[in-house]
Amino acid sequence: FRIAVLISGSGTNLQAIIDAVQAGRIAAHVGRVISNRPDAGGLERAAAAGIATEVIDHRDFERREAYDQALADRLEAARPDLIVLAGFMRILGAAFVARFTGRLINIHPSLLPAYRGLHTHERAIAAGERQHGCSVHYVIPELDAGPVIAQAAVPIHPDDDAARLAQRVQAMEHVLYPQVVGWIADGRVQLGDGGVRHDGRIP
Ligand code: GRF
Fold it and tell me: Domain Formyl transferase N-terminal: where (predicted)?
């Protein structure tokens, strides 16, 4: 089972997945890491783990469709069974998503369907929520709206600021994302016509 991971930043979720593969908790191989930013810290994490890396810089492309096409072509060359978006901060167009439907997942820092989009921690605090969290979902063209595979909740404390809350959520992301990737690698979760299908043994 081959995994490709797309990143834009520090790659702490990528690291959690690498660690889980190395510990034997994910029965898969991370074959490639692609970043749209040459300075993404996650590229060093990948290199340190001996994973092939590639930068496809969106600034080299005039149109979003051309970028998506280049990214899709490079990805296909790696023949991934699963493409994991891990802090990949580019919106992927409908044509790209259609090409990889059912093989494309993302982690989003909120309890979807609440707080799609950016600045989720600030918005959850401002709304007076008492709970927040993260969701792993299949990607569809509509942003952060695809079928949710699994979620994990954390409390919001009265004295929280966005940074503290983000830290608490991210610690949870690093548990949830490897777990879901492991389920998919084991064939226990799939995207069916009616949404997410799983084998019934998932907590
Ligand atoms: C995570 O908080 C994720 O939910 C969001 O971007 C962040 C990526 O962090 N989409 P990292 O690059 O995995 O450290």
Answer: 2-181
